[in-house]
Amino acid sequence: MNTPLSWIKAFVPDLDCTAQQYMDAMTLSGSKVEGYRAFDKNLDKIVIGQILSIAPHPDADKLIVCQVNVGKETVQIVTGAHNVSEGDKVPVVLDGGRVAGGHDGGPLPDDGIKIKKGKLRGVESFGMMCAIEELGSTKEFYPEAPEDGIYIFPEDAEVGADAIDALGMRDVDFEYEITSNRVDCFSIIGIAREAAATFGCDFILKKPAVTGDGDDIANHFSVEIEAPDLCRRFTARMIRNVKIGPSPKWMQRRLAACGIRPINNLVDITNYVMKEYGQPMHAYDMRTIAGNKIIVRRANDGDEFITLDGQTRKLDHDMLMICDAEKEIGIAGIMGGQNSMIIEDVDTVLFEAACFDGTNVRLSSKRLGMRTDASSVFEKGIDPAGVAEAINRACELVEELGCGEVVGGIIDEHGELPVPKEIPFRPDWINRFIGTDISEADMVRYLEKIELKVDLAASKVIVPTWRQDLEQEADIAEEVARFYGYDNIPTTLPRGEATAGKLSFKLRIEELARKVAQFAGFDQAMTYSFDSPKTFDRLQIPADDPVRKAVEISNPLGEDFSIMRTLPLGGILTSLALNYNHRNIDVKLYELAHIYLPAQVPVTELPDERVQFVLGFYGEGNFFSLKGVVEEFFTQAGLKKKPAYIADAALPFFHPGRKAEIEYDGRKIGYMGELHPTVAESYDIGERAYIAVIDMPVVTELASFDIKYRGVAKYPAVTRDISVMMLKEVTAAQIEGAIEKCGGKLLESYELFDVYEGAQILTGHKSMAYSITFRAKDHTLEDAEVNRIMEKLFKTLSGMGIELRS
Amino acid sequence: MKEKLEKIRQEAIKRISESKDLDALNEIRVAYLGKKGELTEVLKGMRDVAAEDRPKVGQMVNDARAAIEEKMEAAKEEFTRRLTEQRLAAETIDVTLPASKKDMGHPHPNTVALEELQRIFIGMGYEVVEGPEVELDYYNFEALNIPANHPAKDEQDTFYINKEIVLRTQTSPVQVRVMEKQKPPIRIIAPGRVYRSDEVDATHSPCFHQIEGLVIDKGITMADLKGTLALFAKEMFGADTKVKFRPHHFPFTEPSAEMDVTCFKCGGKGCRFCKGEGWIEILGCGMVHPKVLRMSGIDPDVYSGFAFGIGLERIALLKYEIDDMRLLYENDERFLKQF
């Protein structure tokens, strides 16, 4: 929405402020001004001059030398323009003045162009005559301006007067961001009402007065609404003996200031009223309306219709059409038909102003793929009560401009119209709600400024129909607060019962995960929650794997963003690949990534959203360094038992010999491994990469920050080293299982300190050496006690086919 | 005898003075004081001394021994000191050589901003809670006073799973979920991911983060909203930060406002960063709409409250002067390591 200041002042004559003051004050009272443009920017010392004489330039065929009366004096100006003659009144920029741009109409320089006296081919020139482009505008907005040449004023222009004022350029255009609830502010009148209230000025709006010709339109025409759910009101008036021509300058100037091109008096009137009242209008050539009748009804599915712009449109039953007795003549609220277009020789015109259902217009215009000025107004949901006023204003302008004879009477078909709403008015409550101490009188003053009537006896506010957004006391409180000034509301802090500030337990565990990962050198990544179904193929997931069942987005941005990830791998691998591609070395990333697991597809209920702690790296490190980070996290989270690593889990995206599912206390808690070379290749990661994924909900469930001190050992420990040899397939977990089983209560700890495979031992075998520590809580261990345990251990190990080396 | 002892003593002391290291000193100890040492030999010869002279000779031997030992101890100390000095001199390092560092990982800029924000609100008694990202239409729209057919529900903004399920477009549905479950007083913030159907570019992302705030209690006023957010702004952006509240519209708050803060680059004078305005828009807020309270089972005649929503990426981009939103989701290490 934009408004020129001059048009606002037409309703608020006392408004007196700078553009910046207007912008700031309107923004603070709720009509956010995004910016403004002064039309007279860089236009200095420009007056109306009259050309007294024209002589040829002695040394240049294309130049002429003019003597120009600029009011107080006559100056000599040399010009190359050829559209001027003696007696013409033209805009003249004097020596030391400034114009906005060049005559070619190119982009305007920030500081304009300075004009100084000088010599043109030896002849002195004391200024410049201006084309409309040099004044920062175009022929589009000043249709009377010549195609290429100096702008020429009408004969009655006052010599020596301010040319910029005469052109209506002493004006500022403001651009607003109007919120969707304030439909009334998509009009000059709505903004003017806000401006009057903001600056405490009077708002003057006259009811349009139409004389009419004494006849009644009802004698000639009728309107029938067959779809009252989609058309709440339809008004029509008729104009006879229409004389098409240009509209007056003042109207052209106002439209131009709004960025609307003047076309002719009839079109300009409908545009003018749409801008002023926020009511879209349409004009039909009566000759094209069959049966002197308009019927408002739904379209038939599959019908085709050619709109004003010559395009053929496909219709459906949910679109509302304006029809005559025989055919469709317009898509309601969106665009008229080519078949009822006004042409120059029009004699009788039918004006339409109606109120169509906003949602229907919005959805129809979306299905048609056409958003017009009218549809963008209707879709906001205009006030049905204001329709007749707008059509009357159009007729008033027709009479004022003398472009036709308005037939008396109005056709006004409507169902129930909105009536002013009543909302309780409790000044005490308002003060309590916003935390202020505003007097009742001040509140009443604020409300009445925006034409809300206050009935103090009944403690009620009566809301005019154009304020559909005001429904309850909180809304009235906002109106009071706006005009009291949000900035004047005091600042306090909530009192009352204290509450504990804290992270949820889940977030504490996530914080811990971040701490551990960062301590281990991993940087935090964030990747999109979307995924491509192709990721499953890249990760070598079998076709029937349930992990392929994902939440699908019905209107995705593209295939790559079409499902919600069920595996947290695509993002981290893509990020590792990006780093690899950027030649970053030793890159370690982690992410706390949500996955979304639907109970079934298609989705019927909310999916299970699970946070996955994903660690991924390439470069320095290996499977075991990653395992160390995982176990450190478990320990920090209070998961003190030893996790189990199941090497034969599926995990198709990992190296078949370097992967494991991680179990804790018999529960699946994650998985880790070296990336399968084929997968690494498909992501263009040219090094071994390792990934670990921890299922955070399980960790959160098992985690605990409870600590109990267990005492420091008082008695000495006994340490024994063993070295064993076995087939390569035997795992450390099997040996450690035996140590734990045989060690019993006296086992304090054990540590693997050597693994060897190679020439020194049998092929297919390996040797491992452990240091085992025993300690009793209540006495010094005797050799015999430890020996008994060790013998039991040797026996168990040899039962497993494990040979003792020393 | 006396002369002999004196000679031994002088000889020993001379040798000690001439000795070069601890080994030589040890040899001297053995030669004089050892089991077969010269002084020991003298003591052994005591049996030939007349009984009445023995104490005197004994005294003389002891004196000689003490003198040698004293000298020897002094020499030993000197040698040890010199050795230490030599060792320390040899061990001198170039302290300007580079540190051998344990490289800690870095948090994501979103996390840095979020943690700072959480710290502020936790300090004010807010609990940090969460809600689902794949959300029911009811919570994302209807319960927030955004009825069916509202333009905000347009497909061009919202990702739909089906008619009832959407990717939440805001963290505001968490407000409703909390109010349904919890009795006032409520003070929460709810950070999380939200989704809008925007193509990826320098200023847009189809997936970003918001932080929702909600306070519900008896007697909560708009002044409380202003005070809370002004305090937050000072903590987050610096003690000199000023705030400005502009009326705005959100379906789920009434009155509603947008909050601007003075530009943290120029302090409000106007610069390129704030496009000359001196102010930067930071968040939307308002008093919780009575309809929303009622739908969530809270009686608006008894309780009132305020809510606010902050775009996390917006804060991160502004605060750390990041000029392209895509950097936040690319995870280039050279970017991440700066936070």
Overview of this structure, please?
With 806 residues, chain A is of the alpha+beta class. Chain A folds into 6 domains: 66 residues, Phenylalanyl-tRNA Synthetase, Chain B, domain 1, CATH 3.30.56.10; 123 residues, Nucleic acid-binding proteins (OB fold (Dihydrolipoamide Acetyltransferase, E2P)); 198 residues, Phenylalanyl-tRNA Synthetase, Chain B, domain 3 (3-Layer(bba) Sandwich); 67 residues, Phenylalanyl-tRNA Synthetase, Chain B, domain 1 (2-Layer Sandwich), CATH 3.30.56; 198 residues, BirA Bifunctional Protein, domain 2, CATH 3.30.930.10; 87 residues, Alpha-Beta Plaits, CATH 3.30.70. Chain A is 26% helix and 28% strand. In chain A, the strands form 10 sheets. A 7-stranded mixed sheet of chain A has the order 28-32-33-37-36-35-34, sandwiched between helices. In chain A, strands 3, 4, 5, 6, 7 and 10 form a 6-stranded antiparallel sheet that branches. Chain A has a 5-stranded mixed sheet with strand order 12-15-18-19-20. The longest helix of chain A is centred in the last third of the chain and has 17 residues. The radius of gyration of chain A is 42 Å and the shape is elongated. With 339 residues, chain B is an alpha+beta fold. Chain B has 2 domains: 89 residues; 228 residues, Bira Bifunctional Protein, Domain 2 (BirA Bifunctional Protein, domain 2). The N and C termini of chain B lie far apart (87 Å). Classes of the chains: A alpha+beta (806), B alpha+beta (339). At the A-B interface, helix 7, helix 10, helix 12, strand 27 and helix 13 of A face helix 5, strand 1, strand 2, strand 4 and strand 5 of B.
Question: What's the topology here?
Answer:
The complex is a heterodimer of chains A (806) and B (339).
Chain A: E1 2-4, H1 5-11, H2 19-28, E2 32-38, E3 44-56, E4 64-69, E5 74-79, E6 89-99, E7 113-114, E8 118-120, E9 123-125, E10 127-129, H3 163-166, E11 172-177, H4 188-199, E12 222-225, E13 231-240, H5 249-257, H6 265-277, E14 281-285, E15 293-298, E16 304-306, E17 312-314, E18 320-323, E19 328-331, E20 335-336, E21 349-356, H7 358-368, H8 373-378, H9 387-401, E22 405-406, E23 411-414, E24 421-424, H10 427-434, H11 440-449, E25 453-455, E26 460-463, H12 473-484, E27 502-503, H13 505-519, E28 523-524, E29 530-531, H14 534-538, E30 551-552, E31 563-564, H15 569-581, E32 588-597, E33 608-618, H16 623-636, E34 644-646, E35 654-664, E36 667-675, H17 677-682, E37 689-695, H18 696-702, E38 718-727, H19 732-743, E39 747-756, E40 765-774, H20 783-799, E41 803-804
Helix pairs in contact in A: 1-4, 5-6, 6-9, 10-12, 11-12, 13-16, 13-18, 19-20
Chain B: H1 2-18, H2 22-33, H3 38-44, H4 54-90, H5 109-123, E1 127-128, E2 134-136, H6 137-140, E3 165-167, H7 173-181, E4 186-195, E5 207-217, H8 222-237, E6 243-250, E7 253-262, E8 279-288, H9 290-295, E9 304-311, H10 312-320, H11 327-330, H12 333-336
Parallel strand pairs in B: 1-4
Antiparallel strand pairs in B: 2-3, 4-5, 5-9, 6-7, 7-8, 8-9
Helix pairs in contact in B: 1-2, 1-4, 2-4, 5-10
